[in-house]
Structures are given as C-alpha cells and as structure tokens.
Amino acid sequence: VSAPTWARRLRSEQTARANRHAAMQAVRDGDRPGGSATPSLNDKDD
Known about the structure:
- The structure is a single chain.
- The chain has 1 helix and no strands.
- The longest helix has 27 residues, at 5-31.
- The protein has 46 residues and is mostly helical.
- It is rod-shaped, with a radius of gyration of 19 Å.
- It is 59% helix and 0% strand.
- The N and C termini lie far apart (65 Å).
C-alpha cells in the first residue's frame, strides 16, 4: 500500500529542504578559512 498523496508530497518537501540545507552548509563551510580541503587553483606559489 503506497502512502497517501499528501504524505508523499510532505516527504518530498522535507527531503528538498534537507538537501537545500546541506548545500548551504557546504557553501558556508567552504567559505571559512581552512574549511575546505580543496586548494584554490587561483593561488600560485611564485
């Protein structure tokens, strides 16, 4: 038995909200000094 339409919609909205939150946290963490393990490709050691 599948869930009612309203329940599927609610779950979809909650999943989308959680995904947006995770994306925003990743962006925020990347903006912090030392928050990212990926070096900037624009910085050159001359």
